C-alpha cells in the first residue's frame, strides 16, 4: 500500500519555471500553487497581467491533490439552516454560488480541452437512519422549492439500486448538477495553461515575509524579493499564513483510500451510475469510482494530522467502513492511502476579501475542489479590474474560540461525534 495520493502518483507532473527566471517585479504575486492560485494566475495572465505564483512545495500537492475528486454543488450545511441563519435571499445566493463553481470547472475543462475524466455524474447524499432521511426530505423540499428543481428524494430501494444492492441506507437525496474529475490531471493542466498564458510559477519557493513599501508590496521568498501592485494569499493550513488567518481556520484531518482496480463485473455492480456518494453521519464518508475501475473512499477516519502512523491507522478504519457498505469488497486490496487537511471555518463557508490591502481566499471547508477554481477565477477577474459579484466577499469571519487549544481537543471532538453516530 502506497502512502501517497493516487491522483498525484498516477500523473506525470508539470514543472514550474526555473529559479533563473525569478523576476523582481510583477503586477500580482499569488502565494499558493493549488487550484485557487493556479486558477487566478491563469485568468490574470490571460488578461495581460504579469503574475508570479510562489508555491512552497510542488504544484497542487496539498489540498488540491489530496481530496476525493468530487466537484459537488450544494453547500456544506443544509439549506434550511442557511435560510434560518442568513435569510432566504442570501441562502439562495450562496447555493447558486456553488452551482456556478461547478460550471466554472466545466468551462475551463472544455475551453482548455483538459483530459481529466470530468463528468457530470450527480451527488447522492445517503441517509443512515430514518431520522437522517426525514432531515433530507425536509431539506430537499426547501431546495426544490426555492433554488434547485434538479434534486430528488430517493427511497430505500432506489438507493440500493444506486449502490450495488446495498441495503445499508434508508434513502437519499440526489443532486444532479454535481461532477467528478481526476484532480491530479486537472491540476497539472491548469498550471500548464497558466504558464502558457504567461504566468510564472516557482515551486519550492515559500514566501518568507510580506510588507508594504509605499504604494507596492514587497514579497520576500527563498528565491528573492518581488515588488507587486497586488498580492493574493491562496494558501491554507498546509503552510503558515499570517496569524489573522490562522486564527480563523481549523485544520481537520481527512483520509482516503483507493482500492486496486476491480474486475469489469464487480466494478459495474458497486456504483452502476458512477455517482459521487456522501453519507449523513457526523463522521461521514464519501466515495466514488475512477476511470481505471478503482473505488476512492474517504472520511474523517482519524482526528489527527496526516503522518505515516495515522495514515496506516486511517486506512484500516476506512477499510472497515467501506466493507460495512460493501461486504463483497472485504478481500479487495487497498493500493493507496493518504491524508491531508481540510481548512474549516466556523461557519463552514469559504471566505474571500481584503485584509490590510491583501486579497485572500481561504477556509473552503471541505468543498474546495470546485470552489477553489471558481474563487481563483473570480479573484483573477477582480484583480484585472473587472466588476464581479462574489457572494462571500468580505463576509464576517469569526476567529475560532481558544484557537491555540482547539487543535489539541480534536480527538475528543471526534470521540463525541462517533458516540452521537452510534447512539443517537
UniProtKB/TrEMBL annotation:
GO annotations of cellular component type: cytoplasm
Domain annotation FAD dependent oxidoreductase: ranges: 27-380
Domain of life where this protein originates: Bacteria
Membrane-spanning residues: none
Gene3D superfamilies from the UniProt entry: D-Amino Acid Oxidase, subunit A, domain 2 (3.30.9.10), FAD/NAD(P)-binding domain (3.50.50.60)
Single GO term (MF): oxidoreductase activity
Protein's name in the database: FAD-binding oxidoreductase
The keyword GTP-binding is annotated on this UniProt entry: no
Keywords: Oxidoreductase
Amino acid at each position: 500500500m502506497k502512502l501517497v495520493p493516487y491522483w498525484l502518483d498516477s500523473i506525470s507532473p508539470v514543472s514550474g519555471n526555473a529559479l533563473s527566471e525569478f523576476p523582481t517585479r510583477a503586477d500580482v504575486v499569488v502565494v499558493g500553487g493549488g487550484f485557487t492560485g493556479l486558477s487566478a494566475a491563469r485568468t490574470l495572465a490571460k488578461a495581460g497581467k504579469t503574475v508570479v505564483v510562489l508555491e512552497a512545495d510542488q504544484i497542487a500537492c496539498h489540498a488540491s491533490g489530496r481530496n476525493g475528486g468530487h466537484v459537488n454543488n450544494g453547500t456544506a450545511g443544509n439549506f434550511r439552516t442557511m435560510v434560518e441563519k442568513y435569510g432566504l435571499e442570501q441562502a439562495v445566493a450562496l447555493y447558486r454560488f456553488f452551482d456556478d463553481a461547478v460550471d466554472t470547472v466545466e468551462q475551463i475543462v472544455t475551453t482548455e480541452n483538459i483530459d481529466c475524466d470530468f463528468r457530470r455524474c450527480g451527488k447522492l447524499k445517503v441517509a443512515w437512519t430514518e431520522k437522517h432521511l426525514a432531515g433530507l426530505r425536509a431539506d430537499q423540499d426547501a431546495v426544490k422549492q426555492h433554488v434547485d428543481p434538479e434534486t430528488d428524494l430517493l427511497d430505500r430501494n432506489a438507493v440500493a439500486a444506486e449502490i450495488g444492492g446495498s441495503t445499508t441506507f434508508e434513502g437519499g437525496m440526489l443532486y444532479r448538477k454535481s461532477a467528478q474529475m481526476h484532480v491530479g490531471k486537472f491540476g497539472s493542466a491548469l498550471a500548464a495553461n497558466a504558464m502558457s498564458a504567461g504566468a510564472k510559477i516557482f515551486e519550492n519557493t515559500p514566501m518568507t515575509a510580506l510588507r508594504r513599501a509605499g504604494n507596492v508590496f514587497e514579497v520576500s521568498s527563498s528565491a528573492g524579493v518581488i515588488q507587486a501592485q497586488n498580492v493574493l494569499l491562496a494558501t491554507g493550513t498546509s503552510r503558515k499564513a499570517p496569524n489573522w488567518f490562522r486564527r480563523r481556520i481549523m485544520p481537520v484531518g481527512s483520509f482516503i483510500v483507493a482500492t486496486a482496480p476491480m474486475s469489469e463485473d464487480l466494478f459495474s455492480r458497486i456504483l452502476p451510475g458512477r455517482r459521487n456518494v456522501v453519507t449523513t453521519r457526523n463522521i461521514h464518508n464519501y466515495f466514488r469510482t475512477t476511470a481505471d475501475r478503482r473505488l476512492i473512499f474517504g472520511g474523517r477516519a482519524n482526528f489527527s494530522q496526516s503522518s505515516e502512523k495515522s495514515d496506516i491507522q486511517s486506512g484500516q478504519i476506512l477499510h472497515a467502513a467501506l466493507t460495512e457498505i460493501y461486504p463483497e469488497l472485504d478481500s479487495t486490496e487497498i493500493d493507496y492511502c493518504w491524508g491531508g487537511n481540510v481548512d474549516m471555518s466556523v461557519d463552514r463557508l469559504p471566505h474571500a476579501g481584503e485584509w490590510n490591502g491583501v486579497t485572500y481566499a481561504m477556509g473552503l471547508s471541505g468543498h474546495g475542489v470546485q470552489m477553489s477554481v471558481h474563487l481563483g477565477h473570480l479573484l483573477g477577474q477582480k484583480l484585472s479590474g473587472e466588476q464581479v459579484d462574489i457572494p462571500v466577499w468580505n463576509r464576517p469571519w469569526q476567529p475560532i474560540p481558544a484557537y491555540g487549544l482547539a487543535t489539541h481537543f480534536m480527538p475528543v471532538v471526534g470521540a463525541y461525534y462517533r458516540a452521537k453516530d452510534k447512539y443517537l
